[in-house]
Design brief:
It is built from 11 helices and 11 strands. With 274 residues, the protein is of the alpha/beta class.
Length: 274
C-alpha cells in the first residue's frame, strides 16, 4: 500500500481545520495517510507522497530535502483566497512567491474560466460594489510572523509600513485595518488617519479611493471587488498587475473547497494512484 505524509509545524491547526477531506480522499484511494507535526517525522518510513503546509520556515527544510533527495512526490499546501477559511490550494513548487502562479503566463485561461470567475465574483461579493471616486486610502495590516510578510514585504514591521503609507498619501485620510487574527495590537497613526480594529474589509473597500498594501490576500479581495488596488513587494498581484483578471480567474480555478471529497480535478494531475 502506498503511503502519504501530511506535515504541518502546528498541531491541530491546518490539518484539522482544512485538510480532513484531503486525507479522506487519499484513504478512499487506498493510500495510507500519516500526519506529523513540528520536527516529529520518521525518515525511516518510505512515503510515496509528502504534503507540506507552507514549507517556508527552517523547520520544514530537513523534510523537504529528504523528499527531494529520495525522489518522493512533494506538494505544498496553503490557505486559499476567497475566503481563506473555506479553501486551500496545492502547488508542486511552493507557496507565496515560490508558487507556480508567480511565473504563470495564463495562456491556459480561456473564456470559460473568465465566465466562472464572473459567476464566482457575483456570488462572493453578494451585492457589494466599489463606489467611485472614493473617500479614503484603505490599508490592510498583516501578521508580522507570516512568511509572506517575512520573505516578501518591503516593510515587515507594520509600524514601518504605516509610516511609509502616511508619507506616500499626506493629503488623504488613511484607514489602517488591523488583521482579524490580531486586532488589538497597538500602532501609532497620525491624527488625521485611523486605526480600525473591526468591520468587514470588503465593505470598507467599497468606499476607498485606493486600497494600498504589501502582500496581503485582502488586496486580492479588493481587486475582485473592482476597487483600485496597489500591492508592494514580491507577490502575485504586483507581478501580474497588468493581468489582474486572468490572475483572479486562475486563483478561483486553483482553490479547493475544504469540504470537497472528490479531488481528482485538483490532485490527479500531480499524483499517480496506480
Amino acid at each position: 500500500m502506498k503511503k502519504a505524509l501530511v506535515f504541518d509545524r502546528i498541531k491541530d491547526d491546518h490539518i484539522k481545520n482544512w485538510l480532513q477531506c484531503l486525507i479522506k480522499y487519499f484513504e478512499n484511494k487506498n493510500i495510507e495517510v500519516h500526519t506529523s507535526y513540528g520536527s516529529n517525522y520518521n525518515f525511516h518510513i518510505k512515503y510515496d507522497i509528502i504534503f507540506v503546509w507552507n514549507g517556508q520556515l527552517d523547520i520544514y527544510q530537513p523534510l523537504i530535502n529528504h523528499a527531494i533527495k529520495n525522489n518522493i512526490k512533494l506538494l505544498f499546501i496553503e490557505c486559499g483566497w476567497f475566503n481563506q477559511k473555506q479553501y486551500y490550494y496545492v502547488d508542486p513548487l511552493g507557496v507565496n512567491q515560490n508558487a507556480s502562479i508567480m511565473n504563470d503566463n495564463f495562456e491556459w485561461i480561456n473564456q470559460d474560466h473568465i465566465d466562472k470567475l464572473n459567476k464566482f465574483r457575483q456570488r462572493y461579493l453578494d451585492g457589494r460594489k466599489w463606489s467611485t471616486p472614493g473617500k479614503y486610502i484603505l490599508c490592510p495590516l498583516q501578521i508580522e510572523s507570516d512568511t509572506n510578510v517575512i520573505n516578501n514585504a518591503p516593510y515587515p514591521k507594520m509600524q514601518d509600513f504605516i509610516k511609509h503609507t502616511e508619507n506616500k498619501f499626506p493629503n488623504d485620510m488613511v484607514i489602517f485595518k488591523t488583521h482579524p487574527v490580531c486586532p488589538n495590537l497597538n500602532y501609532k497613526v497620525n491624527g488625521n488617519n485611523a486605526l480600525v480594529r473591526s468591520g468587514n474589509f470588503l465593505e470598507m473597500a467599497q468606499d476607498a479611493k485606493v486600497v494600498y498594501g504589501q502582500t496581503s490576500t485582502a488586496l486580492l479581495e479588493s481587486t475582485l471587488l473592482g476597487a483600485p488596488t496597489e500591492a508592494m513587494g514580491n507577490c502575485w498581484l504586483n507581478k501580474h498587475k497588468e493581468n489582474k483578471e486572468k490572475l483572479l480567474a486562475a486563483l478561483v480555478e486553483k482553490q479547493i473547497p475544504i469540504g470537497e471529497l472528490n479531488l481528482d480535478y485538483w490532485i490527479g494531475k500531480y499524483v499517480n494512484f496506480s
